[in-house]
Design a protein that fits this description.
With 247 residues, the protein is mostly helical. Helix content is 79%, strand content 0%. It contains 11 helices and no strands. It has helices at residues 2-23, 28-45, 51-80, 83-89, 94-108, 110-123, 128-155, 159-174, 188-194, 198-209, 217-241. α3 (51-80) runs antiparallel to α10 (198-209) and α7 (128-155) runs parallel beside α11 (217-241).
Length: 247
């Protein structure tokens, strides 16, 4: 059982990331362009004052966008190659299929993530506990976007539609909310709108963990609770609402 699961995961990584990385290395620029470009813009505009926040924001964008990228990839494989039909008819479980494809998205994002890890270590200097908190936040962001991306991919009938939804959702969740800068920069009447996005809570937790934002204990607990709740809700939706066999 363990051997078969390992082969399924490796097959997903080979099909969805290694092939593209090997044959079309230029596509790796896509995984780095958005998070790094926003980081540079915020850094230049703030004259370096928000570099640490921008690095953490780039991490959040990279993890969330990687998960949402799963939507387009799964839709392409489902509609153009009928791969989901074959998986449904095989002994492979939906969980193994989705986990393998999600893992491939992380492998695909290694250049961007490695760059951000180095920048985080050089400019932010997180301790062990801080690094664990950041890792937990990033994994929750990735899980949220993966489950959302998988659910939407099962409803999508066209790759163009999938790319449109993926880009729209990534923009709404990672550029409009205060991910690259502190939420205190938003005037109070509009600040409440930012809390409609789970990435706002992820950014607050990350910035608070590294001493970039002062938050009360109650606010930190609330942020963790909301982020965990959103992750669970999207996971439940993926399990109960995704059209796994109706293709």
């Amino acid at each position: 059982m363990a051997g078969r699961l390992t082969r399924q995961l490796l097959a997903s990584v080979l099909v969805n990331s290694i092939y593209a990385m090997k044959n079309y290395p230029v596509v790796l620029l896509n995984t780095m362009l958005a998070p790094i470009s926003f980081l540079l813009i915020v850094n230049f505009v703030s004259r370096g004052a928000l570099l640490a926040q921008a690095i953490e924001g780039a991490f959040i964008m990279s993890m969330f966008s990687s998960g949402m990228g799963l939507q387009a990839d799964l839709s392409h494989l489902k509609n153009d190659f009928k791969l989901q039909d074959m998986v449904v008819a095989s002994p492979a479980s939906p969980a193994a299929y989705v986990f393998g494809m999600a893992l491939s998205e992380l492998v695909y994002s290694i250049p961007a993530l490695a760059t951000l890890v180095v920048m985080l270590a050089v400019f932010v200097h997180p301790g062990a506990l801080e690094a664990l908190q950041l890792l937990a936040v990033m994994l929750m962001m990735f899980t949220t976007s993966v489950t959302l991306g998988f659910t939407l991919s099962t409803f999508s009938s066209d790759i163009v539609q999938s790319f449109a939804f993926s880009g729209l959702i990534s923009t709404l969740f990672t550029t409009l909310p205060p991910v690259y800068y502190p939420i205190t920069y938003i005037p109070l009447p509009f600040r409440y709108l930012a809390y409609l996005s789970p990435t706002t809570y992820a950014a607050e937790i990350s910035q608070s963990a590294t001493g970039l934002l002062q938050m009360s204990t109650l606010s930190i607990v609330l942020a963790w609770s909301v982020l965990a709740g959103v992750t669970i809700v999207f996971a439940v939706l993926a399990v109960t609402k995704a059209r796994w066999r109706e293709v």
